[in-house]
Amino acid sequence: MTRTMILLSLLLGGCATTPMPPELAACHVRMEAHAAHLRTGFAALGHRPEVHLRLDEELADGRGFRKGKSTLGDASPGGAIRLRPSRVCADEVLARAVVAHEMAHVALQHRGVPGSGITLLWERPPQQEVEADELAHAALLRAGGDPRAAMLVSCWLGRCDRQGPPGGNSRSR
């Protein structure tokens, strides 16, 4: 019996994950709150994306290569959303916009394409990115809350006023 208990504790202990540092745990809670609030906006548009958020600084692709620093997040059709904490945890407006954009990819069941994800300075975004921005913008407007995130996504769509995006961010795609 004792051997069984020791073996079981070793097996369970080996499966345990290292707890997140407090600042990342707090960021994760905020990102989950953004997603929960945005669900109402997506539902009003006929979408019910079920998402699972994860903070991942590396954002490695399927072959193990790290995505460029300009990639802020990515999503899979199954609902897994990865966000780069060094970029989204410090800026709530950007975080809300990125979560909405990635939730839109899930809602639209977009399949991943090489180099996909929210990145800075798209010369010309692929069609899936534009579609995700359109849905994210609509969901942000429907969900309400801080309007600056919807204004930021509007800028990503090329509809920015002359003052530029909210919060002083450069084109953040």
The secondary-structure element order is HHEEEHHHH
- Taking Cα atoms only, what radius of gyration do you get, to the nearest Å? 18 Å
Q: Mean pLDDT, rounded to whole units?
A: 82
End-to-end Cα distance, whole Å, is 57 Å
Strand content: 5-15%
* Mass-distribution shape: globular
Largest sheet: 3 strands, mixed
Oligomeric state of this protein: single chain
How many distinct helices? 6
Protein structure class: mainly alpha
Tally of strands: 3
Main β-sheet, spatial strand arrangement: 1-3-2
What share of residues is helical? 40-55%
Unreliable spans are 168-173
Give an account of the 3D structure.
The protein is mainly alpha-helical. The protein contains 6 helices and 3 strands; from the N terminus they run H-H-E-E-E-H-H-H-H. The longest helix is centred in the first third of the chain and has 23 residues, at 22-44. The protein is globular, with a radius of gyration of 18 Å. The termini are far apart.
Question: Could you provide a short overview of the structure?
Answer:
The chain has helices at 2-15, 22-44, 85-88, 92-107, 127-143, 148-156; strands at 52-55, 73-75, 80-83. By secondary structure, it is mostly helical. The protein has a 3-stranded mixed beta sheet with strand order 1-3-2.
